[in-house]
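Question (not urgent): is this output format expected?
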Amino acid sequence: MQHYTEKDKMLTIHGDRLIKEWTLKDEITNEDAMSVFDYTLNKCACYDMDGREIPGLFHIERMDASAKRGEILPLGGFGDQYTILQNQDLYNMISTKILPELPGAKIETVGTLEGGATGMVQISCGKDFNIKGDASKSESRLYFNNPVGGGSLVMGFCLTRCVCENTIAIARKEVIAGARTGTGHTIRHTSAIDVYARQAIAEIVEQAKSTKAMQERIKALASKKVNAEQVKQALAELYPATPKMANESPMAYTNAIAKREEVIAQWEAGETAATFTADSAWKLVNAFTFPIFNPAKVVKGADLSGVRYDGLFGDRAARVSKILATVERIAA
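Got this back:
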């Protein structure tokens, strides 16, 4: 567990009055962020009880800009290969490579933990994304956690808003979980950490842009109504159960008919109608994609966490992409 100490600083634009130790601000500027990271962390030699230097073992020293000598942080020893990515360098990557590429993105929280050994930054990718008539609402965030005192640098997408130590830890776990599915990165403190960090940031920017583009497609679909004929056309194109198929491939014909019926049932279901904009192209997309992601269809013993993310990769991703393109064209 990472701990906030009296030597740390934490700035946030969150209006939660329960945050007593953090400084609430209307906006966090570059100057604000750099004032939080106004120190450097250095490797310094370790010595035994007799004052002899221990080869290949180092402590971490914090050197504040205004200090004449550094402070040894109580973090244990580190080897020759351990490389420090300075928190101000990480922030510079974020402010110059991410913020300019994502209009509407802003820093929500920036600060340090464990006496400055850990730096963290959280960014909002933009306004809350929600659709009129749709009960769902979400805002994607980017989270960066750099524990120089041990553990990996993590960066990626999360949903949890950091308002305390617990939520900082939860957001970190979300990004680590996302590293298994392509939405997060974990990077060890090796000699190439800055190179790997820049590569990860480039990927994060492209993913964030793709997310924004997809949100615009969803909004457009939610604004268009579809009628019964358009629904039939989508069914015929995505699951073409023709009489000829019944003769040539009875099993394929049966499967296509079953999928059609499943989509129709989902289209007409009260739960779907209440959740998604009534009779919209977006509702139709979800009628087609629900059977693909239905948790009830996951085999017993499978990792249920994969149900949420499998659509990003492989065959499921191709099917979802085809559904989107087909409904967009029919509803145009």
